[in-house]
Every structure is written in C-alpha cells, then in structure tokens.
Amino acid sequence: MIGNAVKFTESGEITVSIDEDSYGQIAIRVVDTGIGIAPENHAKIFKEFQQAESETARMYGGTGLGMSIVKRIVDRMDGTITVKSELGKGSEFIVLVPLQADARGVLAA
Fold first, then answer.
1. Cα–Cα distance between 44 and 49 in angstroms, integer?
2. What is residue 83's three-state secondary structure?
3. Which of 99, 107, 100, 105 is nearest to 27 (CA)?
4. Are 67 and 55 in contact (CB under 8 A)?
5. DSSP code string of 86-99
6. Pairwise CA distance, residues 9 & 86, whole Å
C-alpha cells in the first residue's frame, strides 16, 4: 500500500498511521493525494494481474499483483481492507486486523 502511494503520488502528500481501534484491532491507514481510483475500479485492484486502468499500467508499470497480495495476507489474518478513492483526488486504504493475546498474554496481530 505504501509503495503504491509513493508510486502514484508525484506531488502532494502521503500519510501512514497505525493505531488500535475501539474494537481492539490494529488499524493501518495509508492516505495519499495521488492519481486516485475511479469507484467502478475499486474491487478490480484487489484481483491478480489487474490494475485500475490499462493506461495506468503503461504509465507506471507494475504487474497488478501488489494489492491482491495485500488482500490475501489481510484475509488470512481475519482482517479487512477497504478503499476510498476518487479519480484525480487521491486514495485512502484502511486495513483492520484483530489483535489476539498469545500464550503469554501479549497482544499480537
């Protein structure tokens, strides 16, 4: 997510935060002011070998695997990933992963 934020934000800003939400989950938030993603392409970016637009692949390169790998990892951790984005206005990705206590009582994702 951070790599894509850097890749698709030529100017502006990128914010990364990690917190615990009120439900006891780790919340990782990546917000950028980059090129954005049209709403009709939000689900598409989580599929293997897919990018939001074919023009994006030509301009920026890449295989279209990054976000599908992130989603697979998040799913295996019983988490969720959401995207809010509008073409030309940047993107916000939020990953929520449940915290669980290990045998010693230490919280871990």
1. 10
2. strand
3. 99
4. no
5. -TTS-EEEEEEEE-
6. 14
State the pLDDT at residue 3.
92
Q: Token pair for residue 77?
A: 């951790």
Q: Length of the chain, please? A: 109
User: Cβ-count burial of 34 within 10 angstroms (0-12 exposed, 13-18 middle, 19+ buried)?
Assistant: buried
At residue 42, what is the residue type?
H
What does each of the 109 residues of the chain score in pLDDT, given as a tens digit? 999 999 989 999 999 999 998 888 999 999 999 999 999 999 898 987 666 555 665 565 566 688 999 999 999 999 999 999 999 999 999 999 998 766 666 666 6
Residue in this structure with the two tokens 């070998």, named with its chain if needed: 49
Residue partners of 109: CB distance under 8 A and separation at least 6: 26, 77, 97, 98, 99, 100
Which tokens sit at 104? 């010693």
